[in-house]
């Protein structure tokens, strides 16, 4: 090898190469961002369309269906989800990760523009916005006070803290929860209004007409120009009380005649508590590509700067801090990295029995790992759990090349050759094997680079980081290792006791192995039998191993979803949520829980009859119970509480508060879907592996349905907008105008007195005015009102009406088993028109199944072709590739033995195992070819190659296995992912190495007897050239 020759001849050159690698790596390390996982940005575009007064059914047919038809033709769409509600259509379009967000948003805008003419005239134009993040907060900032009221505390948070936090670098929004918004409340009395023949619209018009600030021109003099403005007169409750609503002759109606007026909370229908105490919460949502750790640290610095200026008795705190898990997981990987380096060096020392000899391969570890940071930086990656895990696994691999070089140099020294010559000849002899194994390991990951979707992004950073470190290890093995061997490696004339003991045991092992491998070479069916058994067991084990998308992770926090009966009032829901909270409060402090956070109503589209709790757990080392065990325990306690449901949900890496099983049933009408999902629910309840079964559709939610007699309303000159506006103001409330106080602007909130509207009959107190005649008309003359049970939300998935069945998984029951079970229930019990889809983690699992099989097959083909090119033969690579089933059988056996699932981490390790398994085969086959070139008989060449390569094979195998031991013993944050990879590497390499040393010689003897070495043609050509020259 030219590179190793140059390094032996020019030691300074070899040293400088390694020093440059270290320098570039250190500089890159200082520039790299830190995050939990690679940046997974899923482009999402949302479409919001208002259609005031329309029922959910009408919104579905006239808005949602029309817009979805136009969206269906856009490229790159992964899914379309929609909700049709009273007066509103919401559509979310998710694109593949490869799609450019700007292109996606422009395509959606164009489609909406083309669809607008088909919408009803009364509907507003669709509003389109981009949303590439999850929208989930990474940190909750809590504000608690002993001196301020809830209204004052909310006002303080809105006026001061919210704005400062939203301006922090990397923050997308700072959203307030559980507050009491300060407003001027005007509670209209419908009876007093009816007595004075006033409508809600009259009050709205009077407020907007009188409470206004307008420019009134400019007064210009010779020397100056002064603008004039008309001030608004209404800045306190007393001023609003004297606001004139109507004046006719001597009769004047003031606002106080028909309403109760005062400042206070807008509504008292939200609750936010930490450890049982009321708080105001500000949720920090990062921008899509922001580093969560940096964002959280920036927010905490801002909090620290702000804390001295808080009002007396007011404190700041945090909950739902994502950085605890992220930083904990990264710190654990760093610890694993250090332990792995120590273990690998220890194994080297035991094998070599000499500190000086151990130093040579040990040096490749820091050089290769540090240099890998340069690859991470050049590729635009980050320091995250996957890139660090790649470095952990690389430790066992980067020493392999140096071990092969070192062992061969040492062998030549024992043959009596001088150090310089031994280093030159030893490195040259194994140079091809070093390059071949490196190329194979790199080629294994080529298909991974081209994978799409979330899994492709995750795999890519891991694969390229590992490939980069292996490439650098090969470079160091062929430069620094031969140079150090020529300078520091001497024949040990006074070996230590450890060295003597190791040599004796290895010599015995080699002698015994030679006798045994001779049997395998001569009785070739022995190797073939082992190979066939490995392939068969791999198939059987694959079908037996549980399968999942991700391993179940204890992330140190969990959700509790609380749901009351449909139509529950806020007081009833508050009482139910606090009943659930009371179960958990005793477990705070002395138990496993560090804090509890309660909010009702819940997030987003959870509904008014919902609540959510976030439980933060103590550090992994401080508790003797996992999140999963705690979840099972409290599930039983929650079941004892009547009239409310509570579902504990352990957080996954995908975030959110959804169960792992998200099974979507679509097609047909909602009546059919309800019938199908009810049947599936009943059958699924019989499966003990599923818990917390639920559906996202309830057709019995109490609603008051208002039907307008449009013909009569038109005759009387009353528009649907007038009717809708009256109902909105009197029942729901509306911000009509604003007022100023302490230099801040606040809303004026107008609504009917709540106690006056307790049933459908009470709506008869409302009146509207004719736009044509001015006639005062009672509302129930124009509308019919009835209380019905209907679904408030009509959901679609991929343009089909859909209902989602969700469930949690019991311990020992995998996501793959759950989805296969539900799929079979559909096949056995539902008609053919039922359409099945998946969401969330279930969708990622199903999508990943086929892509992993494709990548694995492609990796096998690429490795085979690369080996064929290197060996100049199609038989030799086949012999080498036969080691792969041996490793797969061992790895799958390890998964089954430990009860671990086959998930994306273990799948990634399986792909890597292709390279790890073939390395040993390459060493034997390549050396056998060299011995045959030297004239050794075929059988003797195979046996001799196997014996002479045994020691480096065992050393590389044990260093790789030793490198995986810390992953197997992992604990703390993120240990589950490390454990999944560790099992594959430990069992796969162990079994593969133990069987390869027998199967490869046997298969080489069976298949390669009539083959030539890669140098055969070259030697033949040289002989012919020499003959021609002599002639």
Task: Describe what this molecule looks like in 3D.
This protein is an alpha+beta fold and 1031 residues long. It folds into 6 domains: 2-37 and 325-489 and 501-550 and 846-1023, Multidrug efflux transporter AcrB transmembrane domain (Multidrug efflux transporter AcrB transmembrane fold); 44-130, Alpha-Beta Plaits, CATH 3.30.70; 139-181 and 268-319, 2-Layer Sandwich (Alpha-Beta Plaits), CATH 3.30.70; 183-213 and 228-265 and 702-790, Multidrug efflux transporter AcrB TolC docking domain, DN and DC subdomains, CATH 3.30.2090.10; 554-651, Alpha-Beta Plaits (2-Layer Sandwich); 659-699 and 791-836, Alpha-Beta Plaits (2-Layer Sandwich), CATH 3.30.70.1440. The chain is built from 31 helices and 31 strands. The strands form 8 sheets. Strands 1, 2, 3, 4, 21, 22, 29, 30 and 31 form a 9-stranded antiparallel beta sheet that branches. Strands 14-13-18-19-17-20 form a 6-stranded antiparallel beta sheet, with helices on one face. It is elongated. The model has no long low-confidence stretch (mean pLDDT 82). This is Multidrug transporter AcrB. Pfam families: ACR_tran.
